[in-house]
What we know:
By secondary structure, this protein is an alpha+beta fold. The chain has helices spanning 2-20, 34-43, 52-63, 65-75, 78-81, 83-89, 101-112, 116-119, 162-172, 187-208, 217-231, 234-247, 282-287, 292-310, 343-357, 361-370, 380-395, 404-417, 424-443, 449-452, 454-464, 467-508, 510-514, 519-537, and strands at residues 122-123, 129-130, 134-142, 175-183, 254-255, 268-272, 277-278, 312-314, 322-324, 330-332, 338-340.
Amino acid sequence: MIKAAILSFRVLGILWILARCDAFAVFEDTLVNQRLLRLVRRLAARDCTGRPGERLSRAMTLLGPAFVKFGQFLATRADLIGNTLSEDLSSLQDRLPPFPSEEAQRVVERSLGQLVSELFVSFETEPVSAASLAQVHFATIRRRHPLPPTDRAEDDGDDWDAPAAAEKQEQDGDIAQVAVKILRPGIERVFLRDIDLMAWGAAVLERVVPLSRRFRPVESVALFRRLSEVEMDLRLEAAAASELADNFADDPGYRIPRIEWDYTAQRVLTMERVSGIRLDDRAALLAEGHDLRLILENAAEIFFKQVFRDGFFHGDQHPGNMWVDAEGRIVVVDFGIMGRLDRKMRYFLADMLLATLARDYRRLARVHVEAGFLPAGQPEELFAQALRAVCEPIFGRPLGEISFARLLGQILQITASFQMPVQPQLLLMQKNMLMAEGVSRKLDDSLNIWMLAEPLIVTWVAQHRSPQARLREASQDLGEILERMPYNLRRLERLGEMAEEELARNLADPDRRRGGLGWGQGLLWLAVALLALIVIID
Length: 538
């Protein structure tokens, strides 16, 4: 009873804040009762300035951390909410007042099993940043398992002196400056409570306002829940940073902070402390003597390698998470949101890019068909015509004004109108492309960042999408099929033995023999036939 009352008050509070900010205007074209909307505006609305999306953004800020994160998540789903609303929600800032240092230290001690004074040489009580899920404190550690003298995080050139480094390491005990990310106490309970309310509200909205179903609110909340559960386990973020660092171990232009695993747990993440100039701070970069074109070339190459070479990319590459250090390297932090693209998706992207640049819209439509994205019954010729309508206006502009991120976004929107399944990882990639283009234009509006990566893309496509490469891929697939063949044959043999045993029991039992072939026997023989087919064509 008490819990129901608390939830009721929370729901009323949410509705009141949405009404005060006039946030219901976002759904103006889907609400049936316009008279009710006008009444709510007269009685409650106090902050009606700006576009509907800007009003919704202000409301979400007032509603708390879960709603701020949900707004940021929706900002990546332009396919559902449209470009204007997506841009308005992109302005949401994930900043909250810090929680007390004493609580932060208690979380660290419970997670790592030791007192803060025993774990750290020093621990700064004032956090350097605070967001909806966690806050960050600077600290100093003495590594429990010192790195080998030759294992250096930075390229020190040809004059590297391993014995001298070993002596220095022994003297200072391998002291390291670190940043400690700590989850807010009780944040899981707060988030899940509000996500439960979102799920309930989404279900009610779909039932009461059928036109709202085009936004797919229930599906969106469910996906947001899954992403939030991942973000609230900092071990997974540490693993993502470690994997990204392995991928770029030999790349001198990209720096990922080293994870201190001995000081990391589900609610605590400790990594090497890094610093630099924000990637979009043009004046500061020039003042330090950095070459802006080289920075953009490096950024384009990094994005290309993450997407095409590795199929594993940083999913939140806004300027607050990316800096340029004194050596000109791009430094990245915050690995809570990562994207993955399997081999087939990367090949689809490459084929789509080639067809788009060649302005071959029939081929572009065919690429979607070959990938299995265009549903049966949807006319391929009409889809090609729709693609032409979107792409042609883009190519009429100067190179510096062409936005491949917006072009990809419009193509993804067209696919939705043809009832094609949404590809969340492509949407995440498109969001990061938009951020990269924004930074690029701040640094040098005469350059197109994707044209800087064109030689890499051309080389990669030649290696992976040429006729010879496709033949190699087919031979690899055939090799994998042959590798699985013995296992599939063993399964087929076992099912055959089961079928023979079942047949023998039928012949030995007069009652079962008179009853003919039962459902169980029929299904078993069907399974044998299907597995045989799999063995043949797999």
